[in-house]
Amino acid sequence: MSLPALSGPKLCLNEGAINVGTPDDTSLPDGIQRVLLTEEQVQTRIQELGAELSTYYAGRKPLLVGVLTGAYVFMADLSREMKISLDVEFMAVSSYGLATQTSGVVRILKDLDTSIEGREVLIVEDIIDSGLTLNYLLDILRRRNPKDVRVVALLKKQRDDAHPVQVDYLGFEIPDEFVVGCGLDAGREFRNLPYVAVVRTE
Ligand code: PRP
Question: Global pTM?
Answer without folding.
Answer: 0.87
